[in-house]
Amino acid sequence: MRNGGTASAALEELAGRRFATNRVTEERAAEVFEQRRGADETPEVARRVARDVFVACRVSERLGCETVRCLKAVASSYARSRLMDDLKAKALAMPRSTVRLLSALPAVTVVLGEMLGAGPLAFLFGSMPGLLCLSAGVLCYAVGLLWVEALMRRLHDDVGGADARTP
């Protein structure tokens, strides 16, 4: 495009075919970016980038500024968005693995108790105090899982607040 090409010609080259008119539309851009998106990119990301490219082309047409500069702004916005997604995934990885480990701990404890011959299953299912302990444990476990899920959802929303924006 720096050497005289148009945004429409660049999209045609990416699509591998010619369009009927020499105009960039959001639908055409969405089609091209959906075809070219990576395995780690969602269809929503492709649509957002297509919308941003379409808007950049319209701004360039209306204001008369260079299309390349407008598209550079879209590219840098996309790069920041990818960086934010990577940082969010890294920030949430450790809490998720900790939750998995702590969620499995009660079952592991019972299995180890059985292996050592302590008979936790006989106690839990064979006596009234055991059934009370089991009921209290299951209730606390369920409440704890719900609480941790709410915390993780809140953390995900707080960290991922930039994803919820619409241009």
UniProtKB/TrEMBL annotation:
What superkingdom heads the lineage? Bacteria
**UniProtKB keywords:** Membrane, Transmembrane, Transmembrane helix
* Chain ranges passing through the membrane: 101-123, 129-148
Q: What is this protein called?
A: Pilus assembly protein
Q: Which organism is it from?
A: Bifidobacterium catulorum
